[in-house]
Specification:
The complex is a heterodimer of chains A (108) and B (116). With 108 residues, chain A is mainly beta. Chain A has strands at residues 4-7, 10-13, 19-25, 33-38, 45-49, 53-54, 62-67, 70-75, 85-90, 98-99, 103-107. The chains are: A mainly beta (108), B mainly beta (116). Chains A and B meet through strand 5 and strand 10 of A and strand 5, strand 9 and strand 10 of B.
């Protein structure tokens, strides 16, 4: 089973600042990685797939990069609606699908 | 548009079973895997298993082997998740989700509370 590790667990950022979230896989997942955004009381929402392709409805300030075992989600200028928990998930070697533990982006 | 609509919240006693439904619409039901993912209070996402609606084949996470059954009814485009021998730690929101294989669409979630 591929273990996904996200860091940091919590990221405190001021509105307008840049946020950089990391996700590491225990073995290569190629580019078969997704990011999800989850707000309180809501289901997760697909944000990025194939490591760098933005899903429908998300603005260009969200970008994903990386391949193999190291991945990054960048939010270039945080808006109020971006404060949420972000999860990475690999789908290169499944089942099982595996998720990282999440990074909470909170207001500084 | 794609919609996954789940059944309502449940309260069960330890040792009981629960069956949650997920009705799909807006796409070809038999063409995409349907997964179940759960989230305990304040915790992260945990993949439980999936069904391929076309043939009904299933795969479950090791952790749930023997306790989890996922079935489907193609006539109503509905997938069911049944978890037996419930424990307090099964208290969670249960989501159905579909995609290929990134999970594009999610149900609204069903809270299952295990309490005596």
């Amino acid at each position: 089973e591929i273990v996904m590790t996200q860091s940091p667990a919590t990221l405190s950022v001021s509105p307008g600042e840049r946020a950089t979230l990391s996700c590491r896989a225990s073995q290569s997942v190629s580019s078969n990685l997704a990011w999800y955004q989850q707000k309180p009381g809501q289901a997760p929402r697909l944000l990025i797939y194939d490591a760098s392709t933005r899903a429908t409805g998300f603005p260009a300030r969200f970008s994903g990069s990386g391949s193999g075992t190291e991945f990054t989600l960048t939010i270039s200028s945080l808006q109020s609606e971006d404060f949420a928990v972000y999860y990475c998930q690999q789908y290169n070697n499944w089942p099982p699908l595996t998720f990282g533990g999440g990074t909470k982006v909170e207001i500084k | 548009q794609v919609q996954l609509v789940q059944s309502g919240a449940e309260v069960k006693k330890p040792g009981a079973s629960v069956k949650v439904s997920c009705k799909a619409s807006g796409y070809t039901f038999t063409s995409y895997y349907m997964h179940w993912v759960r989230q305990a209070p304040g915790q992260g996402l945990e993949w439980m298993g999936f069904i391929y609606p076309s043939g009904g084949s299933t795969t479950y996470a090791q952790k749930f082997q023997g306790r989890l059954t996922i079935t489907r009814d193609t006539s109503t485009s509905t997938v069911y998740m049944e978890l037996i021998s419930l424990r307090y730690e099964d208290t969670a929101v249960y989501y159905c989700a579909t995609g290929n294989p990134a999970l594009d669409y999610w149900g609204q979630g069903t809270l299952v509370t295990v309490s005596s």
